[in-house]
Amino acid sequence: MPRRSRWMHLVAGVVAGVTLGVFLKLCLKTSSRTSIQACPEAGKLYVDPDPLSIIGLRPEETVENSNRTLVFVGVMTAEQYLESRARAVYDTWAQDLPGRIAFFSSEVSRAPGLPLVPLRFVDDSYPPQKKSFLMLLYMYEKYGDRFEWFMRADDDVYVRGDKLGEFLRSVDSRKPQFIGQAGRGTAAERDALALEYNENFCMGGPGVLISRETLRRVAPHVKYCLKHLYTTHEDVELGRCVAKFAGVSCTWSYDVSLQSDVGC
User: Does 5 reside within a domain?
Assistant: First the structure.
């Protein structure tokens, strides 16, 4: 082969190699959690799992014809707890619920065999205000008309499904209800929490129950509430958002029965 032709082939090979290298560098980014992350354009090909199939709910099931649509429980968890706390919850008390359950975690979370919702644009940082509020928005958009009650729970709580069902059937979900262990913080925290003298919040630890009507009023304003946080306390900010847009505070009269029968 003439020398000129060999040089032309060599130059063409170098140009092709450089072009391919630049493309791969731009389109494939390494991540601390995954070895390769595709270009944003490739992300458009991703299809969200069907919300009903995630929780095993048939399209024809409604609050009128199913005994497992009384309550939807959203459990906030993190990637590092999926195979420990979340798995334990799912294998124990989740099986006795008069409803359905799903676990809400960061966008990169994966856990085969669990009803998991990896929330887009959410990480596992603490405090989990964004995770909590976007979980409520997901509940409303995907399941708002399919359950009477919605529960926000942590992954280290234990719920007695029989007692929970008995309790919820005695309360009208058509009215705005916000039920849990009411609190106002310690005396030293009062000013920092920015609560009015007549305001409280449902403490997140034992779990929080929200009626369908409360969720309907609050969910459309989730993004507003996220932009107007006064503190780093997720449960305080949820209570503030509920008070503003649903017009109710945590129901003091239910705090003892909820704590003793549902959470521990």
Answer: no
For residue 107, tell me if it sits in a domain.
yes
Range of the domain at 79: 51-260
Q: What pLDDT score was predicted for residue 26? A: 44
Q: What are phi and psi of 75, to 5 degrees?
A: -100, 120
Q: How confident is the model at residue 41 (pLDDT cuts 50, 70, 90)?
A: very low
- Percent of the chain whose predicted confidence (pLDDT) is above 90: 61
Q: Are 61 and 87 in contact (CB under 8 A)?
A: no
Residue 27, CA distances (Å) to 2, 35, 239 in order: 38, 13, 42
Helix (H, G, I), strand (E, B) or coil at 150: strand
Please say if the pLDDT value at position 89 is more than 50: yes
What's the pTM value of the predicted model, to 2 decimals?
Answer: 0.77
Q: 127: cis peptide before it, omega within 30°?
A: yes
pLDDT tens column, 110-160: 999 999 999 999 999 999 999 999 999 999 999 999 999 999 999 999 999
Structurally, the chain folds into a number of domains equal to 1
**Which CATH number fits the domain that encloses residue 197?**
3.90.550.50
Closest CA to 68 of 58, 83, 80, 81: 58
How far is residue 117 CA from its own chain's centroid?
7
Domain membership of residue 10 (yes or no) is no
Contact of 153 with 74, CB cutoff 8 Å:
yes
pLDDT the model gives residue 187: 61
The answer as to whether 22 is a domain residue is no
Q: Give CA–CA dist 76/89, Å, rounded.
A: 12
Which among 238, 10, 247, 6 is positioned nearest to 136, based on CA atoms?
238
Query: Would you tell me how many other CB atoms lie within 10 Å of the CB of residue 247?
Result: 11
